[in-house]
Design a protein that fits this description.
Largest sheet: 4 strands, mixed
Oligomer: single chain
Radius of gyration: 28 Å
Number of strands: 8
Distance between the termini: 67 Å
Number of helices: 29
Shape: globular
Structural class: mainly alpha
Helix content: 55-70%
Strand content: 5-15%
């Protein structure tokens, strides 16, 4: 018991317990236990067989497994060279060709180092992200003043709604668990917090940015918008010196994230790594995507309405969050109590809002480089700005005494106070803006952000922004449930239970998955040298499917030895390697041998399964003619030495 410990140890333990009070209150512990059970159920059979099943996305799943394995390997052997991964030899900073996922690797490292099983480590990281996403939403809801019923609803929606849960196979998008935790601390700081809340938010932001660059960018947009909203709504009241805390938090974020961001901007500068607007347009969601969901209730509803075939054929993503969350979110927008009297007159408030809207529209058009929507188009924001000036003139003629800020602030503060409160009113804007941006370049906002924000051009799929929409809807839906809880606690519990039934999509489409290193890789692992390797066959890069399948398999097999590897699969392939792979598609030949020798590649590995019987029988004579020395032979393949050492 506590009193049996020595005094110094007792004091340290008490300090640790006190520091965890924010997370370890009784309702939060109950939520942790309940969400753990729900995670097991909603992710079945992945949750019961994490070492032998996977939500297999083919090459991408192999990329995630390799990334975690490389990160942990680098933690142990060469942490300062972590971005110089072993793929696409002899290129540097190749980890920056895709998400580095260092934040997830920190979670996976104990499992991977203890078991040597990257599949188990990845799946446990994914399952934990599901649990923590729900817990973070619960903590955020409680910070905003929601009761237990509303907080539970918020947790259920963010953890298990299809737009988030069904990204569980995409490691860099599933691990968004730190977003609600960070926003909760920003809210706490804004409503009277201190330095420790600012520092905590900075550290949580870093964890999210390290877990996924795109989700880190989403969180950066959310935090910046929340701070601006708090300032404009006059709800920003930290008790400490806010400018000092802001500088401290910014310093922490810059110091911890600049080393991670720099390789990406170097690769972008040197090799042109970016996503074009045309690519984002191709991946923009269509109308069917917003009706798509794999849950059993939603499938039944679509079949009943006769929509199933159309949605199944055309949907590009699962973006339907559920009927109950939508209805509860709409319910939160209805007035529930008397609003404070706004100081500005109604006409003043409407004219102020209209003028601000035209100014925002002008800025949007300029940032996007012009917009076109149907028959409407504008190449610049001049006309919108002229309209804003006209409205300002009318407004000054109507009311010269009221300040513009007071009119707008009073109007929205009055509206939000009567519904969900001013702090939670932020999530109305977050929902609308994130949903708007998720529609893609055709609708303006995404294109404006693409041109204005550094790093936004790394995002290829605009619909990923709906991760923020789901969180905002979960918060607003929590306020809708609180309306029912005020009438009947049993009714609120019933709404949460009905939401679980509506969102249930288990069993997930998880398949048996096994990692089997080839005997050639095991032979390379036993060698003392660190010579580079090229693995064959290499498909022609024009065959994108075969190339992705082959290179991702070779890359994953390399975790046995982590030698420099000519092959590679990632979110980006350098032009130099596209040309090299095209040349090596007919290897072994004189041109290919000469290129590999010039690059300093030592070994060529041939996988028997990739070649025809006739080609395989001729391999020995072709290699002998090119002075390639046979080093090892197995039923599965052969290893040849390329260099002349």
């Amino acid at each position: 018991m506590l009193q049996t410990f020595t005094a110094p140890y007792r004091r340290r333990r008490v300090l640790v317990l006190v520091s965890l009070t924010f997370l370890m209150s009784k309702p939060t512990l109950q939520a942790l236990a309940g969400l753990a059970l729900l995670t097991i159920v909603f992710t079945f059979p992945l949750s019961t067989s994490p070492a032998s099943t996977a939500l297999d996305l083919g090459p991408d799943t192999r990329l995630f497994l390799w990334t975690l394995s490389w990160d942990v390997h680098a933690f142990v052997h060469a942490p300062l060279a972590i971005f110089d991964a072993n793929i696409f030899f002899p290129q540097l900073r190749t980890l920056a060709y895709s998400e580095h996922q260092i934040g997830s690797a920190l979670i996976a490292a104990p499992v991977l180092l203890a078991t040597g099983d990257p599949l188990l480590a990845m799946n446990l990281t994914l399952l934990l992200s599901c649990l923590l996403s729900g817990l973070g939403a619960f903590v955020l809801a409680r910070e905003l003043g929601l009761g237990l019923a509303g907080a539970w609803f918020c947790a259920i929606v963010f953890a298990f709604a299809p737009p988030r849960l069904l990204r569980l196979g995409q490691l860099h998008l599933a691990t968004v668990q730190w977003i609600p935790f960070c926003l909760a601390l920003v809210h706490r700081f804004a409503r009277g917090g201190t330095t420790r809340h600012a520092v905590g938010a900075a550290l949580l932001f870093t964890l999210q940015a390290w877990s996924g660059g795109q989700s880190g960018l989403f969180l950066a947009l959310s935090v910046a918008s929340l701070l601006l909203y708090s300032l404009v709504s006059a709800s920003f009241r930290p008790t400490s010196s806010w400018w000092r805390d802001a500088l401290l938090a910014a310093g922490i974020v810059a110091g911890l994230n600049a080393p991670m961001a720099l390789p990406y901007f170097q690769v972008r500068s040197e090799l042109g790594l970016s996503r074009s607007l045309a690519e984002a347009q191709v991946w923009s969601p269509n109308a069917e995507s917003f009706a798509a969901s794999p849950s059993h209730a939603h499938r039944w509803l679509r079949r009943t309405l006769g929509w199933e075939d159309r949605v199944e054929r055309h949907a590009m993503a699962f973006l339907f969050p559920g009927m109950i969350p939508i209805v509860m979110g709409l319910l939160a927008l209805f007035k529930r109590k008397r609003a404070p009297v706004a100081r500005a007159r109604p006409w003043t408030r409407w004219l102020d809002a209209t003028a601000l809207g035209f100014v925002a529209l002008a800025a949007l058009i300029e940032a996007a480089g012009g917009v076109r929507f149907g028959a409407l188009s504008a190449s610049g924001g001049g006309r919108a700005l002229v309209l804003a000036l006209v409205v300002v003139g009318i407004r000054l003629a109507v009311d010269r005494k009221t300040r513009f800020a007071d009119g707008l602030r009073g109007s929205y503060a009055s509206w939000a106070s009567a519904r969900m409160g001013i702090p939670a009113g932020f999530y109305v804007w977050l929902l609308l803006l994130s949903l708007w941006a998720s529609l893609g370049p055709s609708f303006g906002l995404y294109e404006a952000l693409y041109h204005v924000l550094p790093g936004f051009d790394f995002i290829r799929v605009p619909s990923r922004l709906t991760l923020l929409s789901v969180l905002a809807l979960a918060v607003l839906g929590g306020y809708g449930v609180e309306r029912w809880a005020a009438r009947s606690r049993l009714m609120a519990v019933g709404l949460c239970a009905m939401t679980l039934v509506e969102l249930a999509a288990f069993p997930l489409d998880a398949h048996a998955y096994m990692l089997r290193p080839s005997p050639m890789d095991e032979w390379l692992s036993a060698r003392d040298d660190d010579g580079a390797v090229a693995v064959f066959p290499i498909p022609d890069p024009f065959d994108e499917i075969a190339s992705a399948r082959s290179h991702s398999a070779y890359m994953l097999s390399s975790i046995v030895h982590f030698r420099p590897l000519v092959n590679g699969y990632s979110g980006f392939t350098p032009k130099e390697h596209e040309n090299l792979f095209r040349e090596l598609s007919t290897f072994p030949d004189a041109v290919g041998v000469s290129r590999l020798r010039a690059m300093g590649v030592r070994y060529a590995v041939f996988h028997r399964a990739g070649f025809s019987d006739e080609w395989w029988e001729a391999l020995a004579s072709r290699c002998e003619a090119l002075s390639l020395s046979l080093m090892a032979s197995f039923d599965e393949g052969r290893v040849y030495a390329i260099d002349r050492q």
